[in-house]
Amino acid sequence: xxxxxxxxxxxxxxxxxxxxxxxxxxxxxxxxxxxxxxxxxxxxxxxxxxxxxxxxxxxxxxxxxxxxxxxxxxxxxxxxxxxxxxxxxxxxxxxxxxxxxxxxxxxxxxxxxxxxxxxxxxxxxxxxxxxxxxxxxxxxxxxxxxxxxxxxxxxxxxxxxxxxxxxxxxxxxxxxxxxxxxxxxxxxxxxxxxxxxxxxxxxxxxxxxxxxxxxxxxxxxxxxxxxxxxxxxxxxxxxxxxxxxxxxxxxxxxxxxxxxxxxxxxxxxxxxxxxxxxxxxxxxxxxxxxxxxxxxxxxxxxxxxxxxxxxxxxxxxxxxxxxxxxxxx
Length: 329
Prior knowledge:
- By secondary structure, the chain is of the alpha+beta class.
- The chain has four domains: 5-92, Arc Repressor Mutant, subunit A, CATH 1.10.10; 97-138, no CATH class; 154-238, SH3 type barrels, CATH 2.30.30; 255-326, no CATH class.
- The protein has ten helices and twelve strands.
- The strands form three sheets. It has a five-stranded antiparallel sheet.
- A hairpin with a 2-residue loop joins β2 and β3.
- α1 crosses α2, α1 (5-19) crosses α3 (50-61) and α4 runs antiparallel to α5.
């Protein structure tokens, strides 16, 4: 099977077209759809030739490819293409022995990185890949990972990654939870971060002249921008060092926060620190960081097991939110 990345993207794009029994895809439609998929993936204009599409169809139908039941249907003088069987998809076919060997070789390479500093995530990735391979062989799932399969905005993740890696400015059409309509934001993209199972883009907002974070699930559209990118001067390891989550207000100073823990929650917080500055003396948890919305949400999530003692402004904020919540019941 061809391993060329562009080819794999085209095969998946064509698979979507051939699986769609609610629309007729003529050759020009297939060309346009594949060109759009490649353009979005690489964040630049790309096109696919007519001959390439026919070559892809031939490969997908072959034994060396996917043995896909692609049929052509006459519609007047034109011809459209779709699968003969509406349940077929190349994504449903089991992995070949060659593909399994390739993945296992990759897993062996990853295993060498386990002991390197900063590569603890490799363990999770290895387990996830291995569980997928085992499921493919015996159809029995024995481990589950925290994911939100309904999360919006994931289709922009690779596009934004490409903009960042190519140092290219971008115009994002964005609609926050507080806005009734979307707005266009020109941003120099720098960094992508996942928090609480959501993805965020960090970059320089050209209008406000400061770092801003945008949730990918609130993005409506992404376009190229003709504005010149502003070079990144932010060390994002330091940027997140003094906060929980993704909100870093530069006007707020680091504060010492004291929280009284219940006996029930003490072992949990001791074994799973909520921040690098965490210290526990008897039942008092001490943190040194900037208060933000994410910290408030975390405190509230522990309910009666957390009682904020200091600073007073955070005590009042938590009390206010608890009172508002209680009014709903």
